[in-house]
Amino acid sequence: MNNFHTALSTLPKLLHKDLLIHWELFQDNAARQQLEIPDDPAFWQQLVQVWGSSEFVARACIREPDLLLELSQQQLQSPCHAQQLRDRLTQALAGCEGNDSLLGERLRTFRRRQMARIAWRDLAGIADVTTILRELSDLADVILDETLQRLYDGLCQRYGTPRGEDGEPQHLVVLGMGKLGGQELNFSSDIDLIFAFPQRGQSDGSKSIDNEDFFRRLGQKLIKLLSEMTAEGFVYRVDMRLRPFGASGPLAIPFSAFEDYYQTHGREWERYAMIKARVVAGDKIQGELLLQSLQPFIYRRYLDYGAFESLRQMKALIAQEVERKGLRRNVKLGPGGIREIEFIGQAFQLIYGGREPELRQRSLLPVLDYLAASGRLSETTV
After folding, report:
1. Which of 111, 201, 265, 327 has a CA 20 to 30 Å removed from the CA of 24?
2. CA dihedral sign of residues 333, 335, 341, 345
3. What is the pLDDT of residues 143-156, one digit of tens each?
4. Average pLDDT over the chain, rounded to whole?
5. What are the CA-CA distances from residue 177 to residues 27, 149, 285 (Å)?
């Protein structure tokens, strides 16, 4: 009996048939590549446990048998930090310059392999939920930033470098919202993004275009590359509807217009959404300055009684939608579900965040911990 069958014997027999099929398919592909997996009983036990829990990981290993060899040789006990991911992605994207089709193919492969690694750590019980969500968010950050830089360089070669009114080079700022902004991305999450750039101006090439046009084209290329469905799947589903003026608004706008929008048109639900805003790609320094300028809009220094009615209306609309779609038993949207827990935490942030800096956090769990520690919610409730 080989290592796989020994490990398989420890699982319920109900799982044996499918896992044996997976194993036969894997062996066929691995034999063609002359791969040998190390003789480590603990790893084989993890393998049957993970494959028995995730069709995605099993099929990823069957498709690319060297992935399993790579996983067996990695230090799976430790997370892969953002800089390590960046180094691996840089290596994976070598030779893609000027070829968006090849770039997209390499990105899809890289994401699939990294998602399999993270899922393995999750399903084998190696890492806790908070760590897994952080790793998934770091993966998205690195893919966004590296992809954006390559697309930016390509447009600069065509149109020249975009320059501001002060003559300085301009770069796009990509804000991550929602789960990505809160560094709580899960395995199936869309990524909610907003694009902005510091100053109006023009590119300095022979085919000069204004900065609005340059960054609109850059944003379109980024969205297409990430969300385009091919035989390899997609990199990420991208949602841009949280930007100023929603789906009808410009794809990328200068900081001045961005700030003016929130001062003039910003609504309570947009304050709610901006709690999660985080610079995930592009010009990090300028992005942080932009977010700093929005802090008075998000967190009011005075007790914001006007927010109470707006929050009631938002909660009522959510409840109506749940009833209309018959989702009362939905773990995400139903009563007591994930969305309701998020709503409670962010409601406290909107109302008290202006006076209590501890509430100005993007991640939900630290906010809930603070609410319990400060007595605003009981520990039993949290």
Report:
1. 111
2. positive
3. 999 999 999 999 99
4. 92
5. 42, 20, 18
Residue 1 has pLDDT above 60, yes or no: no
Query: CA-CA distance, 216 to 212, in Å (whole number)?
Result: 6
* CATH, range 74-298: 3.30.460.10
The reported pTM is: 0.92
* CATH number assigned to the domain with residue range 306-373, chosen from the 4 options 1.20.120.330, 3.40.50.1240, 3.40.50.300, 1.10.357.120: 1.20.120.330
pLDDT at 304: 64
Do the strands 191-197 and 252-254 form a parallel or antiparallel pair, or are they unpaired?
parallel
Q: How far is CA 175 from CA 146, 238, 263, 276, in A?
A: 15, 12, 18, 9
Q: Cα–Cα distance between 370 and 382 in angstroms, integer?
A: 10
Q: Which two tokens stand for residue 128?
A: 């806790």
DSSP H or E stretch at residue 70: helix 65-73
Domains of the chain: which residue ranges?
Answer: 74-298, 306-373
Express each pLDDT in 71-97 by its tens digit: 988 778 888 899 999 999 999 999 998
**Rounded CA separation 20/14 (Å):** 11
pLDDT (average), residues 202-223: 97
d(CA 55, CA 60): 8
Cβ(233)–Cβ(250) under 8 Å? no
- How far is the CA of 367 from the CAs of 3, 96, 160, 353, 370, in angstroms? 45, 42, 45, 10, 5
